[in-house]
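We modelled each protein-ligand pair independently. The example shown here corresponds to the flavin-adenine dinucleotide entry; the chain sequence is given first, followed by the ligand as SMILES.
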Amino acid sequence: MRIRLLLSIMPKRARSSTMESQSVLAKAELSTSSRSTGAPTKKTRHDTKFLPNKIATAENAALADYAPPFRKLEELTKVCEKLKPPTGVCIVYWMRMEDLRVRDNRALSLASAQAVKDKVPLLALFVLSPQDYIAHDRSPRRIDFTLRNLQVIKDTLAKQHIPFHTTTHAARATLPEHVLSVLSGWKASHLFSNIEYEIDELRRDIKICELANQSQQVKCTFVHDRCVIAPGKVSTKEGKTYSVYTPFLRAWTPHLTDKPDPLARAPNPKPNDTSIHDHPIFGPLFNTPVPTHLEGFELKPDDVETMRTCWREGEDVAHEMLLRFLYTKSRTSQFAEVNPLAEGAKEPQKDPKKNSRIGKYNEDRDHVNADTTSRMSPYLSAGIISARACIRATMELSEGKKKVDVSRDTGIGRWVQEIAWRDFYIHVLANFPRVSMGRPYQEKFANVQWETNEEQFQAWKDGRTGVPIVDAAMRQGKKMGWMHNRVRMITTMYLVKDLMLDWRLGEQYFMEILIDGDLASNNGGWQWSASTGVDPVPYFRIFNPYTQSHKADPTGEYIRHFVPELANVRGDDVHQPSPNLAKKLNYPVPFVDHSEARARAIRRYKNPGEK
Ligand SMILES: Cc1cc2nc3c(=O)[nH]c(=O)nc-3n(C[C@H](O)[C@H](O)[C@H](O)COP(=O)(O)OP(=O)(O)OC[C@H]3O[C@@H](n4cnc5c(N)ncnc54)[C@H](O)[C@@H]3O)c2cc1C
């Protein structure tokens, strides 16, 4: 029944190849997507015949949870370690979408060490996979950001005489064979990569390991790099994965002092010999261009400008953003679509531990009317800076104290806890693949009855629900490709509990517009608000969007900026304009009464399957 209800409206992200057959949903995705005013478009898909299946059956999700591909990859990696490949003429580092950096990159560092040991050159590879981007709802903004960063990486590596080759491979099912054939053409003996924990990516790497083990030509090494503490390391006494954050954090913290040191900086790659430029195959790789755009993922012209202003590419920028957060104070003039690193946007603080953005993070982090948070998420989710580099920097701020501050009472400690949330959701993703498969973590809520209302869903996307804080946030997302955490929580809760629309619709939409779209954190956030996830908000604790609005935007400046209809409204009215005022200002009135909607949501969650 639920599926049938969804069919009429539901465009859904797919992560797994063992999905229920729902090509109808996929077709709906192509026809009813979020491509209206202002949002980046996917006008021409790279491959319109590619219609990924959408939601896994409960049985398939349970099977995947029972034997997570992540565990299988770990086992296979051990087998690979024993392989003795024939002598090759190069070593290859395969960069993927979540480790777009040269500094402090474990797989790249290991690949370089192997190249030095074998006295052969190091080569770097990136494969653009448009079908994966369609299946995973990658936003054009994220793809554009990736391409911009790849260009920086190509230039950086070229200075070290390391060629960086970017190719495009259309059919994602044959990506493993494609990568191995590139390696074979280059006569590579070793392949190094950082692990990606999404189910499709894990299955792809498993296939590569299996093929490489069969052929005995290439030794594959997949290493943990994305988290501060690797998935699998933090477990309960019974060896299980934590599904509640607080005990996870308690168990996570002692691992920070493990040996080998999880915070240690991975050495930078060593340069190749300059003679590589004369090599008949490797030399020309220096000249292969990084594409400036990918068909089907082009940005709208005005979006190009905003993305380049708000989210500049490159590792240096990521590190500068971090320093800005650690040493300068937040500004009301910086909460919106401006260059965060513009001259005058920063002002070093005398006592940063108290006065900087991080110093005030504990008190201010939920305020959206200033740039109170780091804005590191686009850089962290694309791996342009490592999470461990962020933690190391907080230690330097704590006057070189050896221990990492994880206290709830300090700004630094609170911020480190947010990085731990990031780890938490990645650990969940690795160990409970069901969250990659469109299933609720808590299967008991799979049958909650959703409304099917395209008009309301569209109004939510467009920021025209008549609830100012929701509308401001949705317009911020559309404009900037980024939203503050607090308003992500408010807007998601509003879609799910007030409008009673399926959380997966919103999850997909966020992926399509955000530049920091990341399956683990996005799914974690959505399932938190939908009360279906690991450690979620209880279903009966429903945000009142108007109370939340006062707390998040105490001055109303954020609403006035993003909702120009309300630009001249002062006082409480900006949070909840009366119907008369709304009419006068050509601003919508809400679709639902909050207390009635709240009662409806509680009823439906209490009795899944019933209206
Ligand atoms: C519904 C929903 C969807 C979200 N989708 C994403 C997403 O696609 N990508 C993404 O990176 N984050 C996502 N988050 C988490 C969070 O909202 C953003 O990481 C944060 O707003 C980014 O701003 P910042 O870098 O200034 O964060 P800061 O407050 O400065 O935090 C520092 C870093 O900690 C991590 N972090 C902070 N809060 C969380 C959290 N709740 N869960 C996981 N990691 C966290 C991020 O890497 C962030 O950059 C989502 C949250 C919700 C509620």
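The longest strand covers residues 122-128.
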